[in-house]
Amino acid sequence: xxxxxxxxxxxxxxxxxxxxxxxxxxxxxxxxxxxxxxxxxxxxxxxxxxxxxxxxxxxxxxxxxxxxxxxxxxxxxxxxxxxxxxxxxxxxxxxxxxxxxxxxxxxxxxxxxxxxxxxxxxxxxxxxxxxxxxxxxxxxxxxxxxxxxxxxxxxxxxxxxxxxxxxxxxxxxxxxxxxxxxxxxxxxxxxxxxxxxxxxx
Length: 201
Description:
Blueprint: E1 4-7, E2 14-16, H1 18-25, H2 31-39, H3 42-49, H4 54-64, H5 69-77, E3 84-86, H6 88-99, E4 103-108, H7 112-121, E5 130-133, H8 134-137, H9 144-154, E6 161-165, H10 168-175, E7 180-183, H11 190-196
Helix pairs in contact: 4-5
């Protein structure tokens, strides 16, 4: 029986749309290079892992796209907030689960400054009983150790735990150690997929 539900953040509870920033700031003909250099880079993962600071990231990216230095500074000094927005219908589901008595946790790959800003600004973080964020433990999903860290930290039993993520490989990582999983392909499917797992709402 499921007692604990672990949530990823991006595209589960928080809409992640870097295209908003690009449309508002980066010239059309430069957007593809900006995406490749920044959002699809190894450095982006290092930011998630907490092994690279925003200041150093700006310098590294500016070496490749010096013409975008101003936009790089704008992106990181604004803590990426222009790319992030709460998914309200799923936050309502989160609150219903809390009312039903489920233990709720967060497990997410996230940059430290951006995470600290959303955690401070968005009250839905108060619903969580705990969690593990990649930038503090220097581990990224789907590394098995990050799931084990969360289980150990809160004394959770895998068979009593469900993990929800928008990335299939991350769900498979959880399933490998006995945690049940939901691959949330579309954010609006959350409620129906929980019901399919026998979760009361």
